[in-house]
Amino acid sequence: MQRRSAGLGVVLACTLVSTPMLTSAQDMMRHVDLSSPDMTMAEMTRDKVIAVLSAASPSAPADLSGKRLNGLDLSGLDLSGVDLRAARLNRAKLVGTRLERAVLSQAWLLEADLSGASLKDATLLGAQLQRAKLDGADLSGARVAADLSSASLVGASIANGKLGVDVKNQSMGLMRSVLRSANLKGVNARGADLSRADLEFASLVEVDLTDASLVGALLGGADLTGAIVTGTDFDDADLVSARLIRPVGLDAARNLDKAKNLERAQRDK
């Protein structure tokens, strides 16, 4: 297999629900050379990116798809609606950057800093954001089926975001978001779709899950201490070893009796 990164986002496409495909995606990662120039170097400068943005128009929007932008400081720029499909932005700085309606599908953002960035209604299908920093970022209404393992989203918003499996869209298969060991403390997840998302060992301390869907989600070892779960749908969610300590609105949660391994969750005595 070639080690060039073009198309690798498709290969890794954000972990599938079936166990065999999940294993396959992890195996493919071993063949990706994350130290290669494609994954560490930039082919453009910040000024050149600004020039591309300046030349764009409603009829010819900016296209940065497939570009190597690793390590660039693009903080504060307006990249709203820009096509960044399969772009490589590993360790890039996007602090306060506007990425509203941007297309980041299959993009690489390993360890990127998107603190305070606006990703409202953005599309991130098959994107790689392991260990990325999204503290205070706004992903409300975004369509996300990305790998956010060990990412930090402290105080971020995913309100009304679509991070779950889209069973009606067969072209996407059963792609879902992976947030294993991610820090979602204080996240606004009101109305978010997290169905079948992988949230194992994630910190969901004081997260607002009002009217959110956790249908079929993996919550093994997750910490929901102080989480607001009024109207949250727990149907078929796996709560093995999850911490349900001092949750708010648990009596108003939906389908808690249909959750898996509820008896094995850590609960208030």
Polypeptide structure, described:
The protein has 269 residues and is low in regular secondary structure. 11% of the residues lie in helices and 6% in strands. It has four helices and four strands, in the order H-H-H-H-E-E-E-E. The strands form two sheets. A two-stranded parallel sheet has the order 1-2. A two-stranded parallel ribbon has the order 3-4. The longest helix is centred in the N-terminal third of the chain and has 11 residues. It is elongated. The protein starts with 7 loop residues before the first helix and ends with a strand. The N terminus is likely disordered.
Binned, the helix content reads 10-25%
Radius of gyration over all CA atoms, rounded: 18 Å
Number of helices: 4
Distance between the termini: 54 Å
Report on the biggest sheet. Answer: 2 strands, parallel
* Number of distinct beta strands: 4
